[in-house]
Write a structure and sequence with these properties.
Blueprint (H helix, E strand, L loop, with lengths): L12 H9 L12 E7 L5 H12 L2 E4 H10 L5 H9 L6 H15 L3 E5 L5 H11 L5 E6 L2 H9 L10 H24 L3 E5 L4 H12 L8
Parallel strand pairs: 1-3, 1-4, 2-3, 4-5
Bound molecules: adenosine-5'-diphosphate, cytidine-5'-diphosphate and magnesium ion.
Length: 220
């Protein structure tokens, strides 16, 4: 399953694991890990489009929010803290989120990841870089008007404790103050691929597909 951008050879899982901890000590033939960060405000359509990308391009979708919600459900010792932060629209300390992401990456057996909803602030960004040494291939940014995002979240019906108007307002504020600067940071490095996410799902995916075409899983 090679692509244009990763000269992939199959290596044992053990090598992959050490690579995650020490990705800068790569050697010829080592497995390259491709990470795309998928960012955008709450309700901009990150999860929806990631599901489409997975179908077409062979990536594994890791939603930081989904991993945190699963951690609450699992009854972990951090569960109550995570639940309280999500209810308030606050960003969970990166130490917790990065561990969940690393575990999910390891367990997937894949080498191409869409990391959805992460990094959401500077602390997330710097810690991920420090711990994993992974630089994202690019950042997919779903740009969507706030009133449209609000409408979508209120219609989402996933039973989420943070999908109420009071928490939604807090999440928008956190997005503007903490997450947009991360997008700006990557923009200054020329890594942001911005998508007009206010359009219907199929139209957004047309634009997404263009960006991902070099990563087609079908390319020999
Ligand atoms: N382009 C779109 N147009 C209309 N509704 C959308 C669009 N993309 C996603 N949705 C819907 O909006 C809600 C939020 O989408 P979701 O993918 O969960 O966003 P995010 O992960 O960014 O919060 C879902 O109910 C989804 O079905
Ligand atoms: N990197 C992250 C991602 C999510 N979260 C928490 O999880 C909540 C929901 O995130 P999400 O990505 O599932 O939300 P949406 O943007 O998909 O609506 C956020 O509001 C944060 O409280 C976090 O703390 N750190
Ligand atoms: Mg989501």
């Amino acid at each position: 399953m090679g692509t244009m951008l990763d000269a992939t050879v199959d290596v044992p899982v053990a090598v992959e694991t050490s690579k995650l901890q020490d990705a800068d000590e790569s050697f010829p033939g080592d497995k390259k890990i491709t990470v795309v960060f998928v960012l955008g405000g709450p309700g901009s359509g990150k999860g929806t489009q990631c599901a489409n990308i997975v179908q077409h391009f062979g990536f594994t979708h890791l939603s930081a929010g989904d991993l945190l919600r699963a951690e609450i459900k699992s009854g972990s010792e951090n569960g109550t803290m995570i639940q309280n932060m999500i209810k308030e629209g606050k960003i969970v300390p990166s130490e917790v989120t990065i561990k969940l992401l690393q575990r999910a990456m390891r367990e997937s057996g894949n080498d191409k990841f869409l990391i959805d909803g992460f990094p959401r602030n500077e602390e997330n960004r710097a810690a991920f870089e420090e711990v994993t040494k992974i630089e994202p291939e690019f950042v997919l940014f779903f740009d969507c008007p706030e009133e449209e995002m609000q409408r979508r979240i209120l219609g989402r019906n996933q039973g989420r404790e943070d999908d109420n108007i009071e928490t939604i307002r807090k999440r928008f504020k956190v997005f503007m103050e903490s997450s947009l600067p991360v997008i700006e940071y990557y923009n200054s490095k020329g890594k942001v691929r911005k998508i007009d996410a206010g359009k219907p799902i199929e139209e957004v995916f047309e634009d997404v597909k263009e960006i991902f075409s070099p990563y087609s899983a079908q390319v020999a």
